[in-house]
Amino acid sequence: MEYFNKETVGDIAIEKVRLPKATLIEAKVFWERLQTAISQENDKLIIDLSDCTFVDSTFMGVIVQAQRELIKNQGELKLVLPAEQMKEFFKFAGITKVIETFQSKEDALSSFNKEPEIRDIVFT
Predict the structure, then answer these.
(1) In this predicted model, which residue has the larger pLDDT, 90 or 1?
(2) Is 77 inside a domain boundary?
(3) Of 3, 42, 48, 88, which has the fewest beta carbons less than 10 angstroms from its beta carbon?
(4) Number of domains comprising the chain
(5) Which of 46, 23, 60 is nearest to 104 (CA)?
(6) Position 44 in a domain
(7) Is pLDDT at 24 greater than 80 in this prediction?
(8) Could you give the angle at the alpha carbon of 38 between the alpha carbons of 19 and 58, nearest 5°?
């Protein structure tokens, strides 16, 4: 089984995480995939975590780092987090304050056609 797969819809790259638990073990490979997507000038990226029930802090850190890289390039990152428990993890970590989350991939895709929400980003 592949842990990740990439799909492109128009000019939007979608990285699907196909793991029930995304941890330190997979974080390095995931970061490399995200770096590749960003370096290929994908300035619109969706990370689909709909198969996940748990993401550790290292994996979350990779997502935050991808957000930083995209912001430098005037890009956007969106997360698909349909599971309530996952939303709570990301909310508790403060990530939902800086990265928009959606119930479905379709909702995330359609959000790129709307005016972006202005958010204050504070990295400490």
Answers:
(1) 90
(2) yes
(3) 88
(4) 1
(5) 46
(6) yes
(7) yes
(8) 40
